[in-house]
Amino acid sequence: MTTIELDRPAPRAAISWTFVVGMTLVGIHAAIALLTLVWTPYDPSSTAGGRLEAPSLLHWAGTDRLGRDLFTQIMIGSRIALQVGIGAVGIGAAIGVTIGVLAAFATRLLDDALAAAFDILIAFPTLLLAMLVVAASDTASLWSAILALGIALSAIVGRLTRILAKRVLQMDFITAARTSGTSWPRIVVIHVLPNIWPTLMVNFALQFGLAAIAEASLSYLGLGAPPPNASWGRLLQEAQGTVYTAPFGAIAPGLALLVLVIGINLFADGLRDVGDPTRRRSR
């Protein structure tokens, strides 16, 4: 008697550990950021604590030179870092993806001009471009920092989008779609964007970490979120004068920024694994 073997469904690929760890670290920061909207251990502007106190049960991360609770300041810094990251990546994605897709459809002359413009902007450090944009505005603020970083990141996103979109437009199914009478806007929505989105999402995650570091750098230089916003960069700047007498004032915000950036990079690496299972199996 002949037996018929049924094909077993392929096992689902396990989620990589980098994705889980990265998601956990970023999730902790996100939870803390949301918590600050309704509760903080102390009033952020309260100076009731002693100056430069060491970490204790009352002040988990100690106090700064004004007597403010440092753990409260770091919690608010998480919210600012996520605000800047989401806002800058959102602006950079909106500008970069739009121009990148248009460049992929443009004539050769316009495409070459846009590609050269992307290369010139990318040649400048992101922080330098952001500093120029902030300096051009009237006053330094959180929103000017977000706008500046978004514009600076848009060149990176635009260049990647242009390369990916041109690659997709050379596929046979695009030719078939055009032969069937599908309009170019519909091709972009149905075929181009879905095929380039996984790679763009990984890039967005990496740009998020870059934006968090750049915002801290801008705040350290006095070009980011002004007081009373407790940016990690401003906390580092304020603690540099007491780094030998009260080192935890510099260690705590630096460690918070380090954990967030590591979490974002692990999350981006996990997204890359999800989008390309063969890469995960080859490890």
From TrEMBL:
What InterPro entries does the record tag this protein with? BP-dependent_transpt_permease, MetI-like, MetI-like_sf
Membrane-crossing residue ranges in chain numbering: 12-39, 80-106, 113-136, 142-161, 200-223, 243-268
Q: Which residues form a coiled coil?
A: none
**Where can this protein be found?**
Cell membrane
Q: What name has this protein been given in UniProt?
A: ABC transporter permease
Which key words are in the record? Cell membrane, Membrane, Transmembrane, Transmembrane helix, Transport
Superkingdom, taxonomy of origin = Bacteria
Give the family this protein belongs to, as stated in its UniProt record.
Belongs to the binding-protein-dependent transport system permease family.
